[in-house]
Each structure stands twice: as structure tokens, then as C-alpha cells.
Amino acid sequence: MGVKKDDSDKIRSYLGEGVSDGVVGRVYSEYIVSSLNISLDNYLINHEEYKSRIHGIYCSIVKEYLGPDSQYLKKSDYIVKLVPHPISEEAIRGYVLSIEDLKIERSKIDIVDSSVSKDVEDIIGAELVKRGKSVDALSEYDKRNAILSVTDMVSCVRVYLDSLDRYCRMELSGWIDDMFRDVHGRNITIPEYVNYYKIMIGCNSVEEVREIMEEKHVHFLACLLIGRNIHKEYLGFDISEEEFGRRFIDVIDNKDWDENVKMDIVAGDYENERYRECVSGSLRAIYNSVWNCDTEDYNIEHMFNICKLRGYSGCSHGLDEVVVFVEEATKKYKVSIGEIYERILRRSPDVNEVRESLVLYRENENSENENSEKRRSESSLEDVLYDSIEYNEVIKCKIHDIHKDKNLEILPSNVYRILKKILEDNKLKRDDIEMSEFISRQLPSQEPPTPTMGP
Hints:
mainly alpha; 4 domains
């Protein structure tokens, strides 16, 4: 197949001037039958022979000027994959030699891109400034001489390769942005960009980049559906695709990532207050539907804490069980609390005392033995009441009542004397019968009459 001279020259610019007519014809034939709707340039950019050739040129230049152990050899793979148009050995050497040999015209300095050339000049210019030389005050010729005075060939190659590295990274960034928008139909977030960049840097072609991105998009959409269900069930709201990508792109490839998200909601730092609101709202709605009334906030709080320990969401079937359990237990607790208050303080508890006493009872709810649990709860409340200041007043009233029943008067000093003895005996103050007997034994045979003042 005949190849036009322009196409033949273009193929040689990519594969090298020394390639034979047979190689040129073969590559052109492959391009024609490839059925790819792309230009010859785009076809040659991704041709393996071109990439292999550029890889060899790049490595040989680095080894020649920077040594066989240079760190720039590690960058050879992805730089060769991303360079958008041909680089010849002459172009790289031409640039290096142009710094050494002033006879080569500026127009012949052919490096990858004009932006890279400008980048190189900026870096070298900065070096001049550091050495006390004013770049702006120099003519073009003097500037080139000044550059020669502060740089050597190794430095020039290093600057060039750094510039090429930055250029290729910018190219890759553009590809990721454009492809992501085309595949996902939206702009990429910063966490997604970082995640994709780490993957794409190892790709061999634009086609491979797109293939990986499309595969990840399918996986992403499946995870997005799971993530949205988790947010609706545990937090009561939906999450947008962009927000899901921003928050979870780095974890959705991990095993059991969804269970870890649930755990972070329930016991970690992710949307804790929204989780509390979601579950508490569901518990209150269930309570209202069953008993046709509302319940105190502290009861809802207790129900929520049980649900949190069990890892329930706002849609879990176990919520009904928790509501019924807490309500039935609370009714039993309130009866017990009321009985203890009547027995010790001779009155009913107020709403604040009921709430505080319920805390004591609920602390013992996890006991396997219900009777043991009940006794511990009652004992805890009894300890609180027996040690209260109000109970001192109850004992004082008891002392007065016993004296009154015997038609005896008692001096205040004797009341506090008896009270002091009772309070010093922990067993005595808790036994109502024994306490009554003790007080009776303290009765005097005859109390002195209360003196009266004359007119």
C-alpha cells in the first residue's frame, strides 16, 4: 500500500527517522484497518513501537547525564505513556546542547511544549536571582550567557525532566477530569480525584484509563445504592452521589465497608446526632401508636441507648420490642419506687424523684436473675433515702409521735439526742419496728413540766 509523503514523515517522526519503508508501510496499513475513528497522530501516540522507542530514549538520556541510579528512571514508565506528541533524542539533546552551544538558534530548541520551555526558563531564572543577577535587566543574549554561568549540563537535564514530569501530571489531571465528567455525568470531588490519580498513574493508555474508570463507576453505583439505604435507615436522610463520593470513595473497595459505616454511625463519629434523632423519632412514633399518648424524654433516651447497644437503625424490627420492654419495666419500677418512698419517707415521690430513681433501677437491667435485679435496684434506692436529710425529719416525727401517744412532752434537746443515736446505728435506722422499740425505751418516767412565765 502506498503511503503519502506527509503520512510517511509523520510515522518516522514518531518511530524514528531510520525506520525502513517496510515498517512505515506496515504501521500505516495497521492504522487503516484498525477501524478506529482517530487521527494518525492519536494512533501513533498509543503505538507500542513508539512508546518503546521513547522509553529507550528517555532512559538513555537520563543515564548519560544523570547516571544509572538516577531517581528520574523511576518516572520513565508513566512519562512515556502520557507525552502527547513525539519526542526525539535530537530534541532532548538539542535542548541540552543549546545551553552549552550558543550557536544553536532558539527556534531549534524543540522540547515537548512551549509551556515546559517557559517553565524551564522560570526555574533557571530563579536560580539567577538567587545568585544576585537581575534577569529583567539582561538582554536575550546576555540572559543566555548568564544562564551558562550558573548552570551545568546535569542541572539543565534535571530541570527539563522536572518540567516534563509536571507537564505530564497536568495532562493526566485533565484526562481524569474530562473522563470522570463523561462517565459519571458530574464534576469530580477532590477525594475522588486523589483516589483515581493513584490508579490511573499506572495505566498504559487513555483507553485503559477509561476502561478502569467505567468499571469503577459500575462498582460505585452499586455501593451508592447500599450507602443511600444505610443513610435512610440509620440517619433518616438520603445522600447525594457527589457527597457519597467525597466521603466514601476511599473505603468502598474494602471488605465489609458497609458494616464499618454502620458501626461508625452507631458507635463512632459519623453523624451521631442525626442517628440519635432518627432512632428516637421512630421510637416515639411507635410508642404513640401503641399507647395513643406521648412518654417522657428520659424514657425515649433509655430506649435509644438500648437500640444503640444492639446496633438498631430507625427501621429495625427490634424497635417495637424495645418500646414494649421499656414501658412494661418502667411500670413495675414505678410501683416499686412508690412503695419504697411510702415506707421510708411516708409520702409519694414527685416526678423528678421518679426519674432519678428509674436511673438506679435501669442500671441493673442487664442482670440475668430478675429477682436479684429487683432487689439490687430496691436496695440502691433505699440507701439513697435512708441517707437523705428528709429521712432525719421522718425519724424526728416518729420520736414526737411516740411521745405524744404516751401523753408525754419531750424537750428538743432530747429529740436530737435520740435522733443522733439512731443515725449512728445503720441497722437501727433501717428497721422501723426496732427503731420504735428503741425510742420507747428512751421515754423518761416523767418529763419535767415546761416552765411558764408569771404575769
